Automatic annotation (TrEMBL):
<dbReference type="Pfam" id="PF00590">
    <property type="entry name" value="TP_methylase"/>
</dbReference>
<keyword id="KW-0808">Transferase</keyword>
<protein>
    <submittedName>
        <fullName>Precorrin-4 C(11)-methyltransferase</fullName>
    </submittedName>
</protein>
<dbReference type="InterPro" id="IPR006362">
    <property type="entry name" value="Cbl_synth_CobM/CibF"/>
</dbReference>
<keyword id="KW-0489">Methyltransferase</keyword>
<comment type="similarity">
    <text>Belongs to the precorrin methyltransferase family.</text>
</comment>
<feature type="domain" description="Tetrapyrrole methylase">
    <location>
        <begin position="2"/>
        <end position="208"/>
    </location>
</feature>
<dbReference type="GO" id="GO:0046026">
    <property type="term" value="F:precorrin-4 C11-methyltransferase activity"/>
</dbReference>
<comment type="pathway">
    <text>Cofactor biosynthesis; adenosylcobalamin biosynthesis.</text>
</comment>
<dbReference type="InterPro" id="IPR003043">
    <property type="entry name" value="Uropor_MeTrfase_CS"/>
</dbReference>
<dbReference type="InterPro" id="IPR000878">
    <property type="entry name" value="4pyrrol_Mease"/>
</dbReference>
<dbReference type="InterPro" id="IPR050161">
    <property type="entry name" value="Siro_Cobalamin_biosynth"/>
</dbReference>
<dbReference type="GO" id="GO:0009236">
    <property type="term" value="P:cobalamin biosynthetic process"/>
</dbReference>
<dbReference type="GO" id="GO:0032259">
    <property type="term" value="P:methylation"/>
</dbReference>
<keyword id="KW-0169">Cobalamin biosynthesis</keyword>
Length: 266
């Protein structure tokens, strides 16, 4: 039998992959975090599937549930919110399964940052404005961050910054990020992306905390800091992708990335 780590996506059941739905229907056991996975997603399970909510279990208890199901000859789906490649404790769980000789595999899901960008209707990479997306978090009541990955260090890149697990500290984070991005940098907070209770708040680093704090958001929210958020309406952002330029294959045509833009260093 196999333990299937499956990305549950950001919340909407119709954003599950076809593979994820197939695995949910066929598995005899579904292990999920009730804090993040709702009834619509769980409804994809087969009628006889045993459900195990992990929101009050530690890692050892979760591993025990996986091992017991395997010992009973049952296939298990371990649902991870968003995509298993981000903040899912996949490494810790699979390390324990490897030690026990239990086979496992991974099915990706739609990550929260992608669902948030979709809710905002934005592209996080805009030609000549920002071409790097940084997915990170900050330390509060959680494991420590590597020294080289402090918020100041990652913000210095200047790319589109996506902060997970930081919504309760948004005022302090916004103040810290203003040093790198400027207080007028656009910010968006998206909570419960793709779900009926989705919340979208737009602002700038100098006012986003005032807009967000009264809402009392505690979970499943991402903070996106980027000049790309307003690129569609910003007259200064006039560069377009060289990939889709009709003249890109003509002799003598220079790629936009090689041309200086007014007001910016060449």
């Amino acid at each position: 039998m196999t333990v299937h780590f499956v990305g549950a996506g950001p919340g909407a059941a119709d954003l599950l992959t076809v593979r994820a739905v197939t695995l949910l229907r066929e598995a005899q056991v579904c292990v999920f975090a009730g804090t993040y996975v709702d009834d619509a997603v769980l409804a994809m399970c087969g009628p006889g599937t045993r459900r195990v909510d992990t929101q009050h279990l530690d890692l050892d208890a979760i591993t025990t549930a996986l091992l017991e199901a395997h010992a009973a000859g049952l296939d298990v789906v371990r649902l991870c919110s968003g995509d298993p490649s981000l903040y899912s404790a996949l490494t810790e769980q699979t390390r324990r399964l490897d030690t026990a000789g239990v086979p496992w595999d991974v099915t990706p899901g739609v990550p929260a940052y992608a669902a948030a960008a979709a809710a905002l209707g934005v592209e996080l990479t805009v030609p000549e404005l920002v071409q790097t997306v940084v997915l990170t978090r900050t330390q509060a009541r959680s494991t420590s961050m590597p020294e080289a990955e402090s918020l100041g260090s990652t913000a210095a890149i200047g790319g589109s910054l996506v902060l997970h697990l930081g919504i309760t500290r948004i005022r302090a984070l916004a103040a810290e990020l203003a040093d790198a991005y400027g207080p007028d940098c656009p910010v968006a907070v998206v909570a419960f992306a793709s779900q009926p209770r989705e919340v979208v708040v737009r602002g700038r680093l100098d006012d986003i905390a005032d807009r967000v704090e009264p809402l009392g958001l505690r979970h499943t929210a991402v903070i996106i800091v980027s000049r790309a958020l307003t690129a569609r309406s910003d007259a200064a952002c006039v560069a377009e992708s060289h990939l889709y330029d009709a003249a890109r294959d003509r002799p003598g045509v220079t790629a936009p990335s090689d041309v200086s833009r007014p007001g910016r260093p060449g």
